[in-house]
């Protein structure tokens, strides 16, 4: 029976821990070389393979921006948004391919690319150049790491496999970043100032247009503004009282007209004396009286306009003008002379009475006509005032809406003006180079060791991979080993009773070979494998933790190999 055999589950009790530990120990002791060789071989290969994983180094360059104390006060109120826009745009500008390509070209990173005979880059060189630019752009980042009232520090970072390229490229980018950031700050200030001025001018134009509209409302509808006294109220009251007086005067004039018509009818009745044939004329006293009254009214109007400094719309001047128009109209209808007949005294008296009555009747009719015309004018004006008030009520909501819009625009204009003054002050400071100053902080640096891959992760993965393969080898070997190790296993599996069993018979030669393999060959081979794995691990660790020494070692080894090959 073979010495190493597969154990069956029915050989032991699952409740007996000693049997389980004994079986584990047997497997470890029997399969130790099957574990050691795969484990350390694969571990060494994994360490060697880790040497070919690309190393990424990270470097950074700091830019310090310091603001004038006056500028930082403005910054809190007005400059915050433009400055934030500058930050965002500068972070985007840093990763712009054109800027990266110009930096790489100026530093000579494209000098060794394949070129054509005329000096231009060959297609392969263009491809490599674009790859180099995209690799730098993908590894670039910029962020603000410190932001106080007056000082802000921006970090420009770069991740790249070429350790020597990192600080050089960062220095070139920072050298372009500082003047460009200054220009962007000034441009943002100027844009902000122009925008604020434009918005303020637009607000002023809108306010002027709305104020003109309000004025048109107030002229067209005098009572539209409830906050101001109604200018038509006094005129309306005066017209109402004048209308009442005119209506009373019309009633009196109509009564006088009826009385005069009755007297005239009596004077012209057939019972009156015959009319004379001989006639002569005399001045009409009524005509002279009207002329004197017109002169008196004209003098009163002139005195009111000059001495009393009344306006043409003053109620007293308006009343006198209306009375003057009435007397002028009456004067035009009154004859300057009257006819006198050579008749008897009684007939003369009757005729004189008739003429006077007729003249008085004409005067009353003129007064009545003028009074009714004036009443019609007043009635029309009162109607206009009432219609104006009705229209004012209908348009009052538009009036209030316009005033509200003016208040909103005035508030908006005040906000624009509050922002314009600080921005103008900042522009003044910038013209004196006092607003924001950008400067470099220390030299660009790069990490001494690669940031990827991590040494702990590499060690863990390589060791874990080797151990997993070793364990898997032992498990597979145990699974495919179907040999029997005890009599009970044989009896259980085959159903054949075992009478007696003897151990494996080993000859002297086989015993010496087994001893030599167990004590010399396998330990030496295992030591070599372990030493190779440890050496590979040390080299992999050194390439990550001591890249300079690793480079020196690699270079020395390459030179030694070249010298040996060349010597041969």
> Helix coverage percent of residues?
over 70%
Please compute the radius of gyration using only Cα atoms: 61 Å
What's the quaternary structure here? single chain
Shape: rod-shaped
Mean pLDDT: 77
SS strand fraction: 5-15%
- Total helical segments: 14
Global structural class: alpha+beta
Strand neighbour order, sheet with most strands: 2-3-1-6
Distance between the termini: 57 Å
Can you write the helix and strand succession as a string?
A: HHEHHHEEHHEHHEHEHHHH
Give the biggest beta sheet.
4 strands, antiparallel
The total count of strands amounts to 6
Poorly predicted regions: 1-15, 274-278
List keywords for this structure.
disordered N terminus; 70% helix; 6 strands; 4-stranded antiparallel beta sheet; alpha+beta; single chain; rod-shaped; 568 residues; 14 helices; two-stranded antiparallel ribbon
Task: Compose a concise summary of this entry.
With 568 residues, the protein is α+β, with helices and mostly antiparallel strands.
Molecular structure report:
The structure is a single chain. By secondary structure, this protein is of the alpha+beta class. Helix content is 70%, strand content 9%. The protein contains 14 helices and six strands. The chain has helices spanning 17-30, 32-50, 69-94, 97-106, 123-139, 165-220, 231-267, 285-306, 315-332, 345-431, 455-480, 487-494, 508-545, 547-567; strands spanning 57-67, 140-147, 151-160, 279-283, 337-341, 436-446. The strands form two sheets. The chain has a four-stranded antiparallel sheet with strand order 2-3-1-6. A two-stranded antiparallel ribbon has the order 4-5. Strand 2 (140-147) and strand 3 (151-160) form a beta hairpin. Helix 3 crosses helix 6 (165-220). The two termini are 57 Å apart. Residues 1-15 and 274-278 have low confidence and may be disordered.
